[in-house]
# Entry
Amino acid sequence: MSGNMNLTLKVWRQKNSNAKGELVDFKVNDISPDMSFLEMFDVLNERLVSENTDPIAFDHDCREGICGMCSMFIDGRPHGPKDGITTCQLHMRSFKDGDTITVEPWRAQAFPVIKDLVVDRTAFDRIIAAGGYISVNTGNAQDANCLPISKDNADESFAAAACIGCGACVATCKNASAMLFVSAKVSQLALLPQGEPEKQSRVLNMVAQMDAEGFGSCTNTGACEAECPKGISLSNIARMNREYLGAQFCSEK
Amino acid sequence: MNWVTKTFTSSIGQKFIMAITGLFLISFLLVHCFLNALIFFNDGGKIFDKGAEFMATNPIIRVVEIVLFAGLLLHIIRAYLLMNKNNKSRPVKYAVQNGKANSKWYSRSMGLLGTLLLMFLIVHLKHFWVVSRFTDEISSGKETLFNEMKEVFENPMVIVVYTLAMFSLAYHLMHGFQSAFQTLGFNHKKYTPLIKSLGLMFSIIIPLIFALMPLAMHFNFIK
# Structure
């Protein structure tokens, strides 16, 4: 079809977590500009399977931009060149015929490569398990006005809760820092009355786990906020710093 | 681990140290800049040398000087430890990383800019601090600090080094000033824009005034 593209992909191939990986060149031809980036990988993988070659492993699930599974570092940016979207929402019309596209996995000590473009993000799960919850059942939805929450706090909490835990913030950060992710999770609970009673122990435990996982520290470059597909704000990081320092200096423990 | 150790070994606690010492060094820059700007009275260094003598003899300033060096060392050592740790947080680097798409180059180069400043600082301390503190040239009245400045700034290489160093300082401050407030948790809809513009102004004006000093002396605008 006219308008279809021929592209060169440089894709990270790595057999398993212990193997040494390398960038491998693949030619893909006749790619429709209406395909998503992952569909282009599907086309390539079908060809690789038909050629009896190992298909390229990559994470994906909902392909609607809400699950946080897809995780490709495309031409030096997590989720590719467009702002505010995940890889699955990136379409081939964002590229030009003849382009060479480099695709790498998220790179962080805390996100070891499992295979090819798939990385192990259970470090995030362990951070959540360290305190990203409310310990008691908060019950059914309250009667209106029974539990007053200011609109501003509700909005900010909701904005922080939009984090899908994809790890783009870690991937793009020059220090592989997880501050944006952790601060979003700390904020969404700290801003609401249900999360308030545990907010000190929560921030202390989650930051301790974040450090134990080997993520770097925050230089405030703002790269995470710029690349976040959900637009999580840097103000969450300031809030977490506040909560953390406040809890360390003022809590009785 | 007690809570103090725990706080200051955590990633946030280490950044807290960077922010506090950074802001302290910013306050030092302000004092240093305005005292040195006394040379612009262009009175053969009379007022400037009076200021220099006060700084050299006042006991409170002597104590603050020790705090200043402690803060400086803490800022430098902590920075290199953090850089080392952050480097280890990504053992395998990206083949392609498009940093300029999402952040300012100087925010990603604080280590490099800081290292350039450290190198400058060694030269700068040797030029003036060592001479005024560890030789008796100035205290004995044989020489004034103003004349010392004139002498040092005769060398064109010194002018180049000092001017380039002030560019490093400007970019280091452009990120550092506002970043320190964010690290301390100070992010507010009303005040953050103010801090950011104040920081930008500070990062341009202070290094500019500093850079003008050797230039003005070298080209004999100040006699």
Remarks:
- Chain A touches chain B through 52 residues (CB under 8 Å).
- The domain at 122-250 of chain A is CATH 1.10.1060.10 (Fumarate Reductase Iron-sulfur Protein; Chain B, domain 2).
